[in-house]
Specification:
29% of the residues lie in helices and 22% in strands. It is α/β, with parallel strands linked by helices. It is globular, with a radius of gyration of 18 Å.
């Protein structure tokens, strides 16, 4: 049995997903990849990874939604969120992650994060993962057409409608119509608000890829 740390890389950018796999494999990790949240959940169901590294903005099931589900269903798996829409290393508000990597920044930082969350997690639910992750909802209609959203209650698993109101709050609350559970939720955009096209540092990627081929 392999003793390597098993990583699941989730990103809808095929080139970036491949490059991350090459670099992390070369760094001594065992990697698998998925192109969206749905395929990532299937991969986790087939074999639980030691760490999940996921982009936040993806079509279908976004990283916001994926990490919320992972935190609820697999609370012992450390997760790293990544995006180029946020700056710095602070975890975006409402994102249930153990660390955040800003794309196109130092790869050593990413490697350090993977090593750090793996060691701190060690198969246990850490204090930073004790809270309940919010339900991330991706609206599919324009506000002018439909001013309601559909939430799934994590307690009774029933769906219910919630009026969509203007609010600056990232995390909002609604009470389940069936079991009265208070559901924390947030709305997620399908595309990055800043829409940057930044990838990993090109020179670093080229050097790592060439090293692997040798």
């Amino acid at each position: 049995m392999s003793t390597k740390t098993r990583l699941l890389i989730v990103d809808d950018d095929n080139a970036l997903r491949h490059l991350l796999s090459v670099i992390l494999t070369h760094s001594g990790y065992e990697t698998r990849s998925a192109q969206d949240g749905f395929s990532a959940l299937k991969a986790i169901g087939d074999e639980e990874p030691d760490v999940v590294l996921s982009d936040l903005y993806m079509p279908g099931m976004s990283g916001f939604e994926l990490l919320s589900v992972v935190r609820r269903r697999f609370p012992k798996i450390p997760v790293i969120a990544m995006s180029s829409a946020y700056s710095g290393s602070d975890i975006p508000v409402g994102v249930p992650a153990d660390a955040f990597y800003e794309k196109a920044t130092d790869l050593d930082t990413l490697l350090g994060m993977v090593h750090g969350v793996r060691d701190s997690g060690n198969g246990k639910t850490s204090a930073s993962r004790d809270g309940v992750a919010p339900v991330w909802v991706a609206p599919h209609t324009d506000l002018s057409e439909d001013r309601s959203i559909v939430l799934s209650c994590p307690s009774c698993l029933r769906n219910f409608s919630q009026p969509r109101t203007e609010s600056k709050a990232v995390i909002r609350e609604a009470r389940c119509l069936y079991c009265s559970t208070v559901v924390s939720y947030a709305l997620v955009q399908q595309t990055s608000p800043s829409s940057p096209t930044r990838l990993l540092p090109v020179q670093s990627v080229v050097e790592e890829s060439q090293t692997v081929r040798c």
